[in-house]
Amino acid sequence: MKDALLTQAQKLEPPGExxxxxxxxxxxxxxxxxxxxxxxxxxxxxxxxxGNEKMAEDNNRNFPRFMLSLxxxxxxxxxxxxxxxxxxxxRSHGFQTTYWAANLNIWVDLLQKELSEDAWQQIYPFxxxxxxxxxxxxxxxxxxxxxxxxxxxxxxxxxGTQK
Length: 163
Prior knowledge:
disordered C terminus
């Protein structure tokens, strides 16, 4: 599975300089708006686990920083390994796999609203790759989590991939 992720990630074309610069100019406002939208969700505690709201806020600030760095020096293996690390780390703190679907959809909406069409077309494939591979990230990281996390209701009700 991990080899397939890497093969897919190698097919992503890094955005051009103009798109990267546009993302760099707008990510802070998008992160602030995205955090407000995420924090207003009535199911936030279910998505991130009780007491993890601050961690979710930090993630929303660090995520676009990582993406900007990734766009500037795209290395598919770094992308795959970092995403898997994030899944392991956040799931071990109680984040549910539905968190990424919810948050990435917020990001996609913001990117589409805030970026030019050209920048959107270059950056969206990275977010789409993240969204469509959530079940794969879940399956790979299930093997690294305690059974209590990998058997969570989120996992057993179809948002994750069962072993």
